[in-house]
Task: inverse folding
């Protein structure tokens, strides 16, 4: 015979749980005191470390400012940190305005590590040594502070600008290095760039270096990129232009970049 | 002088051992009892009760008075710790019906045992989700809505678990009833 609900309830009530043992209170007291002790220790350490951390931060800020002052006074000093064999490029970034004028938005001096198939571009290739932004003194000052530090401690890029380097793994740069090596072998004629087909449209000489001019296909509504690759400089471009393809097929050039001086170390 | 609320004691617990112990005294029996019934182990119930209260010190902000009283929060904490004791991680679901052995019977040796031991064993043999619902409803006399909030399920699911738990207990305990009626 299956028991009724009342039978079951009656039976279930017979299981009474015992009271908690007295030892539990002792355990709780001990646990409480241990946690409070470790918390006090943590607070004490924080109190000790905070002033040191503050001093350290102050010293680092002073070092950054000092570095900026030295590199402003002696711009050549940064060359000490450029690896031998690097290409040094002074360049300008251009903005093509609607009224037909062209404005320089940035002057930049960079060193480029020579890319090879074994992936020496793993640190990112370009190291900016100095920058100036015409008409933007604050931005220029920020660059004066940050760029020397990044030039001397290239890996600091990853700390200061994690977003930029997120996903830029060693493997990625290895692939870039290998692609560049392939490009050098075939005379700087990339067939694609960023997934877009590229065509060689001519050859020009810039600053005494022969270049191969490659251009992406003109797709309406998309950008058209033109690059001047120098085979002698491991296919590093010496100029670039970015334009937007209009509905009628015309291209409105928006921005560009060109090398002003190239030297090798 | 009115007694301090749980919230007030909890706010002071990090600074005052007395406040913490007051809070502990207020809830220790309930928490220990539930832990014992969910684990069927005296040692585990002690550990769980201790961890439950000391956990309040580590993460006091996890308790949100807007969501319910401290007692309800502690029930949830006990339940989570009991699940860990049973080797379940957060989010793990223990099978309920699949593992029920329909032919399960009370071993004959049980008939000679104390009644409360028989019940204890029968409840321990319930799948954990059913045991949780039964302990909170039958022994803690919580409302279905409160149990649903603690277990993070719908009221309907609580009812269903209770129904299955009771059906299983009736089936398993039938020989015991027969035996006890005959005696």
Result:
């Amino acid at each position: 015979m299956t028991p009724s609900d009342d039978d079951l309830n009656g039976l279930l009530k017979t299981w009474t749980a015992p009271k908690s043992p007295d030892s539990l209170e002792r355990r709780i007291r001990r646990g409480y005191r241990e946690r409070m002790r470790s918390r006090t220790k943590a607070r004490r350490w924080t109190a000790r470390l905070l002033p040191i951390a503050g001093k350290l931060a102050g010293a680092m800020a002073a070092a950054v400012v000092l570095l900026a002052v030295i590199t402003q006074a002696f711009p050549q000093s940064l060359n000490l940190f450029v690896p031998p064999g690097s290409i040094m490029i002074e360049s300008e970034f251009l903005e093509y305005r609607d009224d037909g004028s062209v404005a320089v938005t940035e002057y930049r001096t960079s060193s480029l590590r020579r890319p090879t198939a074994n992936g020496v571009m793993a640190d990112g290739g370009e190291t900016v040594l100095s920058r100036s932004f015409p008409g933007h003194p604050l931005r220029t000052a920020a660059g004066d502070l940050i760029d020397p530090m990044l030039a001397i401690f290239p890996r600091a890029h990853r700390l200061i600008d994690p977003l930029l380097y997120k996903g830029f793994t060693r493997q990625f740069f290895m692939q870039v290095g290998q692609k560049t090596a392939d490009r050098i072998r075939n005379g700087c004629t990339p067939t694609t760039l960023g997934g877009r087909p590229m065509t060689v449209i001519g050859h020009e000489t810039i600053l005494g270096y022969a270049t191969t001019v490659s251009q992406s296909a003109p797709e309406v509504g998309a950008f058209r990129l033109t690059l001047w690759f120098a085979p002698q400089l491991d296919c590093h471009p010496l100029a670039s232009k970015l334009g937007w393809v209009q509905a009628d097929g015309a291209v409105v050039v928006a921005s560009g970049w060109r090398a002003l001086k190239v030297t090798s170390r | 002088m009115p007694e301090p609320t749980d919230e007030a004691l909890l706010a002071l617990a990090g600074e005052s051992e007395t406040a913490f112990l007051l809070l502990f005294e207020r809830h220790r029996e309930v928490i220990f009892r539930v832990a014992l019934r969910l684990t069927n182990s005296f040692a585990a119930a002690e550990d769980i009760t201790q961890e439950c209260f000391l956990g309040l010190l580590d993460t006091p902000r996890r308790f949100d008075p807007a969501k319910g009283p401290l007692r309800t929060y502690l029930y949830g904490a006990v339940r989570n710790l009991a699940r860990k004791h049973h080797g379940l991680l957060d989010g793990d679901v223990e099978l309920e019906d699949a593992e029920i052995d329909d032919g399960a019977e009370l071993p004959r040796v049980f008939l000679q045992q104390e009644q409360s031991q028989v019940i204890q064993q029968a409840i321990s043999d319930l799948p954990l989700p059913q045991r949780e619902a039964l302990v909170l409803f039958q022994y803690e006399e919580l409302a279905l809505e409160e149990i649903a909030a603690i277990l993070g399920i719908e009221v309907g699911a609580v009812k269903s678990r209770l129904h299955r738990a009771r059906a299983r207990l009736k089936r398993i305990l039938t020989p015991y009833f027969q035996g006890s009626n005959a005696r």
Remarks:
- Chain B touches chain A at residues 14, 17, 20-21, 24, 28-29, 32-33, 36-37, 42, 45-46, 49-50, 53-54, 57-58, 115-116, 119-120, 123, 138-139, 166, 169-171, 173-174, 176-178 (CB under 8 Å).
- The CA atoms of residues 106 and 175 of chain B lie 7 Å apart.
